[in-house]
Amino acid sequence: MTASPNSRDLLRRMFDAAVASAQPALCIPPHLPTPGQLGGGRLIVIGAGKASAAMAQAVEENWSGPVSGLVVTRYGYGAPCKRIEIVEAAHPVPDAAGLAAAQRLLEVVKGLTPQDLVLCLISGGGSALAPLPGPGLTLEHKQDVNRALLKSGATISEMNCVRRHLSGIKGGRLAAACHPARVLTLLISDVPGDNPIDIASGPTVADPTTCADALAVIKRYGIELPAPVRALLESGRGESIKPGDPRLAGHEVRIVAAPQMALEAAAQVARQAGVTPFILGDSLEGEARDVGKVLAGMALQVARHGQPAPAPCVLLSGGETTVTVRGKGRGGRNVECLLSAAITLDGQARVYGIGCDTDGVDGAEDIAGALIDPSTLARAWAKGLPPKDALDNNDGHGFFQALGDSVITGPTRTNVNDFRALLIEAAAPTT
Q1: Residue 109 pLDDT more than 50?
Q2: What distance in Å separates the CA atoms of residue 375 and residue 352, rounded to the nearest whole number?
Q3: Which residues contact 104 (CB under 8 A, 6 or more apart)?
Q4: Maximum distance among all Cα pairs of the chain, rounded to whole angstroms
Q5: Exposed/middle/buried for 315, CB within 10 Å: 0-12, 13-18, 19+?
Q6: At which of 234, 257, 280 does a domain end?
């Protein structure tokens, strides 16, 4: 395990294993109710997120009784279903198709009884895919705020706090609309810490945050708000469903896949290849370029000093970094993190890396991420691509695509957030 092609291949296999571990076909069936648990009522399936269509497909393939419903997923992320309707919409900036789907989700759960069970399938991306505006707001208002949040550098938790208080469906509102039916929510987590309220902005989860908290986020990042949006927040009319609301009594929430599971799957691939894995954390946050610099510093310590462990080893991490957009490049938080790491590594021998989003989409591009190796910077300079200029321009995708180092998976139909790995090869034996 010393040659460059082998190291790059191992990194890609670790990433593929991480994605495979979070496939709905594996993680949904163990959590399905039995027909006997329905008590004579109906099973209604609803959901939103990049994995929701594949989750619905897993339900259909493993549920023997009657079922109906609707889920909304990203364009290109649909899955063949016969009884559950699949709708596709835009992500990360919402569109009219997502708005119509959100409205229909509320229609689907009207008129239910206490005997009915609503199975809600939620994964990352649901915030943008079900963009039902709150009172007095339009889709355009939601789009404007979403674009500003994505460029601001706010964490996913902060962004979703704002989104919940501008919504007619998030922050527990969808679960409240199901009352008096029971609700079982199955979650594929894409957020640091796996807090259900932050996964797709918690449409079926009580929300302890307030409009004042949302306004604090807006102030913290200097975001300009359309007047109706500010009025909604300042008036308190955007308050979400709070803990203790009787409409949510008896509801159950289960996380069926999470970043830690994906990292453990990747670690197993490394062990099988004779490489010691170290999981540094499943919920790392911060500016992508800063996280990349820190991770690279750890890899340098291993390569140069054999600390805290000798090579060969791999440093694995997940979570969700942020990018404060200052340039005009094509973005991507994973490629920004990776480019920053490559600059810090400065061609260090025996160090290879991968940074990808497990949903197959890093930023707004249909590119999962990229790979680096000791030749990355030299190859870039040979092509007239100054690495620091690309980083300053937030153009990780343009940089790695020019080098032929992009990782393109197509729709993975799951989402357990970012996957990063820095592999340090063993030094060649001396004679």
Answers
A1: yes
A2: 10
A3: 70, 87
A4: 79
A5: buried
A6: 257
- Whether the CB-CB separation of 22 and 261 falls below 8 Å is answered with yes
pLDDT tens sequence across 43-80: 999 999 999 999 999 999 999 889 999 999 999 999 99
Are 295 and 371 found together in one domain? yes
Query: Are 281 and 326 within one domain?
Result: yes
Which string of b and e fits 235-274 if b means at least 16 CB within 10 Å? eeebbbbeeeeebbeebebebbbbbbbbbbbbbebbeebe
Q: Are residues 110 and 151 in the same domain?
A: yes
Mean pLDDT of 344-373: 96
State the pLDDT confidence band at 4, using cuts at 50, 70 and 90. low
183 and 142 in a common domain: yes
* Bond from prior residue into 243 cis (ω within 30 degrees of 0): no
Nearest to 221 by CA among 299, 308, 124, 287: 287
Element (H, E) at 13: helix 4-21
CB 40 within 8 A of CB 115: yes
Of 230, 257, 284, the residue that ends a domain is: 257
**Predicted confidence band of residue 3 (pLDDT cuts 50, 70, 90):** very low
The pairing of beta strand 418-424 with beta strand 351-357: antiparallel
CA–CA separation, 257 vs 164, rounded Å?
A: 23
Structural domain boundaries, residue 343: 4-20+260-424
Distance of alpha carbon 177 from alpha carbon 44, whole angstroms: 13
Number of domains composing the chain: 2
Q: Is the pTM of this model over 0.90?
A: yes
| C-alpha to C-alpha distance for 316 and 276, rounded to whole angstroms | 11
Q: Are residues 202 and 295 in the same domain?
A: no
CATH number where 268 lies:
3.40.1480.10
Angle at 175 between CA 171 and CA 179, to 5 degrees: 140
Q: What pLDDT does 431 receive?
A: 60
Is the pLDDT confidence value at 1 over 60? no
331 with 192, same domain? no
Residues 6 or more apart from 229 whose CB is under 8 A from it? 137, 141, 145, 166
3-state class of 230 per DSSP? Answer: helix
For the chain, give the number of residues. 431
